[in-house]
Amino acid sequence: MIIFHLADDINQFIKTNRKSGIKTGFVPTMGALHKGHLSLIEQSKSQSDLTICSIFVNPTQFNDPKDFEKYPITIDNDILLLEKAGCDVLFLPSVKEIYPSGMSHLPHYDLGYLESVLEGKYRPGHFQGVCQVVHRLLQITEPDILFLGQKDFQQCMVIKRMIELTNLPVAISICPTLREEDGLAMSSRNMRLNKDERNTAVEISRILTMMKQQLQPGSVIQIKADAAEYLLQKGFKPDYAELANADTLALIDEWNGKDKVVALIAAYLNDVRLIDNMLIHE
Length: 282
Ligand code: AMP
What we know:
Layout lengths: L1 E3 L2 H13 L4 E6 L5 H13 L2 E6 L9 H5 L5 H11 L3 E3 L3 H4 L20 H4 L3 H16 L3 E5 L3 H14 L4 E5 L19 H7 L1 H12 L3 E2 L1 H13 L3 E9 L8 E2 L5 E9 L2 E8 L3
Parallel strand pairs: 1-4, 2-3, 2-5, 3-4, 5-6
Antiparallel strand pairs: 7-9, 8-10, 10-11
The site of adenosine monophosphate has 17 residues, from helix 2 and strand 5.
């Protein structure tokens, strides 16, 4: 695996490869890699000739400075995992490489409704930061296909919108959420959970499954209220337990029995914020 630290160097390398008709896949991450990330690498390897991964903990997407400070960093292990997974190129930039003119005058993206609901509502500014970093990374790596995880359901929609707004010539491939054996969605933030918290964390996926099983045409208000109540009972501080239209993310109080629906939860377990979602009617 070739490791690049400088934007110009990796861009030059990729331009040279593209000239010979090579199809490139890109997997942006914030490191602290787990099997979920590696499944994206695997997908990229199966759909492209050259797989590029980036590891960059992007300061502009953390609305909570404590979350940024505590974000796990395991770079040596990440490199080993990527080599084992057969990743071809790793981009490991500094903040200065990503934001050479500083972070105070970065672009603003018109994300509309997506920025006012769920993660947009509870993490103000977060999606602007996500767009800023992914936009810049796409300009540097110029991939044919961008691989994203369904684990960050709303983020996939936001990045799709940013790509439409910026007319970048890149396709998006959304990969399913990888889970631990008991159902807990894999996440870098799980590393911050102690043993008891880890055992409790699985309740999020259980409650999502329950929401899925309970969904029937008609009112869904009680399902959402019960889910929030269960989270509280299990010791979480929920930001939301919602059901939404999976194409638009419009929150629903009633289901017509036809529309694609997604159940989404964000909740704190002490000071660790966990998110997960499940598509209900695919
Ligand atoms: P992150 O490092 O958390 O920014 O995640 C980098 C990419 O990996 C994003 O596209 C995530 O949606 C994806 N990802 C994170 N966790 C999982 C998972 N459990 N299964 C599949 N993809 C994931």
